[in-house]
User: What shape does this take?
Amino acid sequence: MAQRFGVTREVRRSVALISVPFLYAILLLALPLGAIVLFSFWTQDFLTIDTSFTLANYREALTQPIYTQLILRSLAISATVTVATVVLAFPIAYFVSFHLPPHRKSLWLFLITIPFWTSYLIRVFLWKVILGYNGVLNTSLTGLGLIDEPLTFILYNANAVVITLAHAFAPFAILPIFVALEKIDRSLLEASRDLGESRSTTFFRVTLPLAMPGVVAAVLIVFIPTIGDYVTPRLVGGPDGLMIANMIQTQFLRLNNAPLGAALALIAMVCVTVIALGFVWLNRRWLGGDGK
Amino acid sequence: MSLRLYAIAYLVFLYAPILLLPVFAFNDGTIIAFPLQGFTTEWFGELGRTAALHDAVQASLFIAVLSAILATCLGLCAARAGTMASFPGKRGVMGFIMLPLVLPEIIVAVSLLVVVVQVLDLGLSNWTIILAHTLICTPFCIAILNGAFANLDPSMEEAAIDLGETRWGAFRLITLPLVTPGIVSSLLISFTISLDEFIIAFFLSGNTPTMPVYIWGLLRFPEKLPVVMALGTILVALSILLLTIAEFYRRRGLARAGLRDTGGFL
Amino acid sequence: MTDLITLSGVHKYYGDYHALRGIDLTIRQGEFFSLLGPSGCGKTTLLRTIAGFEDASSGSLTIDGRDMKRVEAHHRPTNMVFQSYAIFPHLSVAENVGFGLRRDKRARADKARAVGEALEMVGLAGYGNRRANALSGGQRQRVALARALILEPKVLLLDEPLSALDKKMREQMQVELMRLQREVGITFILVTHDQEEALVMSDRIAVMFEGEIGQLDDPETLYRRPVSRRVAAFIGMMNFLDATIAPAGARVALDVAGLGRCEVPASQAPGGVPAGAATVGIRPETLAILFEGESAPGRVVDGVVDEVVYYGDMTYYDVRIPGHDAPLNISMKNLIGRPVLEVGAPARVAWDERALVLLAR
Assistant: This one.
């Protein structure tokens, strides 16, 4: 009975194994994040750090219009990107899961993931080439006689950022939804049809609710990282499309004001986390999904 | 049928930027726009003559190889523990290790920058990038290796022990050969991620920039853009090659374990 | 027969879950022994404890006189056939069978001969070069057997080895396993939830419930003289009737609800004679419906047919008798001239007090 509340050998081995990556994550993630939190309560004058506790950074970040505007715009762009990406991605996931024979599925998934793994920088830059004043889109449309003047609302503004990010995060949205759709027992759909639902009501009453966990995962996995994107706003955003990451970079690398940069980064993270948690909560509450 | 059309249109949207790369890489003109000027391989030639690029590529390869190995080792530990006995807090620990998957990379970048430069007062070098890349690659490795380990029948290893092997012998003779395809695929994926990663390298690189940081520098000079296109073409070709190999190994792993294919990476 | 395995006072906890509750058990040299019980009763845990894959929380285990406390799984004189067979998919059939010989010092040719013999023994001669992946379920089972037996263990442990096979294959493998066990003379310990399988194959069976051994006996005793209601209910079909009892020396006087008064020897209460109220069990095949012209030496009660299930060679009847709530389950062979009764028909039920078992509540 000695082992009743003790641990078995296997548990000990399991703990020993997992502690290696866990310690690594503590050292390189938890401690640095802690340092960021500390820094955000300090101040910096050129290269000297003043370690007395102050809320000045937060006060500045939350009162100066330039910062609040940037944060709000970043959240708005992230939200738009998320909605656009997930809405565009759902039919693809549905198509691959429901309309393709099993042996073709992995080929399509492979095709969908390939662009994601190719140089991010160059991909973003090419959107600039596509969307630009003399870009591929405008020259083709003019060439076809569909427009007289090149379109200008598609580059160097928030629209361009949304299009480019929706492209970059496509597989992140497709894969979780696909996984959720794959898990749906096909006989449920037949049961629904059998019970008198039409094809479309079956979709809304059975398929969509069952796919919600995947949709929620897709939303989170797109929404959270996009807020920190630096490259896209910088390359295709123009002055009106800049996001909070660009300001964080400026504070850290240009203005040598790490504490303010840290405060901005934390505020952005807190906003994203709160919104994400709120979304999950709403989903649980209203859709009855147990999304995760 | 309209859904299939939409799917194809979506693929065009996904592939549009990549398909343009070779078009401009072989275009005999410094302006990246239509109409095209004519065929040239000059830009590829220039790649071979740029010493700074060679240094960047070397630095990137060094970082990517080491990050891939370290991340795969960490991933192996986590994935192996994942198949073993549960203990209180295991989900939380796992969740924390997987956190970099959703954390914006800029957060990882600035927090490490603060620690290395301000707290530890150390200089930045390729090693700081390797440490950070290992951190962000590990969740991907775990995801891939989890798949490989989950496919294994747990009694397989017990059978080997039952037949007289030690615990380590059973792992080496049975488990390792069966998850090797997963390990190869994990190495390739993390290598690809590290090779392509920009924002962390941008914040943490020391004297020698990595390749993406070098490319970022080139993007400011319009006359350098065709060279970037040529470089991009090579990188894309290389990525596709590596991914195809990774996918090949993943499928072979499934076949070895006698299982049917259920989906792609992640 | 000499004792080979002795377990005494073995307990196993998983956290707060008490999986084995004081197992005392002796398994003899050369017998075919079965651990039978519903899922979750601890039979697999017990088997894995013998194999060394689980550590008992307390208690002792000896195999062939050696205490196994500090002996790890790979040093124990036991080999196992796993439920999933655990055939190594990346190795050939011969490599699978010869896996355990890796540390053997014998010459390569001797090992190859041993592998060939083992394959022949299980009827897979000539399959050595096949990929393990390409085998059928029955063939995998044979490879698993050959792989375990080649090491000439003192005990072969079989964890639900037939559960993955279809009915026909299962029956064929039952016979083959019995033949194999007689040939090699090794002690077999079989874990199964299939009572028929256990009855057919075993020399002795331990029936387990909730981490305890409910009864340990040979198949016939287990079937005819179950000690408790749950053992009786788990093995075969049984009618349970309430009874009041009064001990009378070496015999017991009974008043069985619906059947009436009778007297049986105390040996018909294998679990001990209970005091006052008890449950009496009687098997469906020991009851009989009397058709026209048939008579019975024993006692007869009148009832009404409540349900009829026709099985071809057999017909199963539910017959209601006054004084007993549930209908009696009766199985009748469909002999020539016997009609199949219809629901609602009157039925005369013959019974014999020799078929009664007194069960501990």
In short: Chain A has one domain: 65-287. The radius of gyration of chain A is 24 Å. Chain A is about 75% helix and 0% strand.
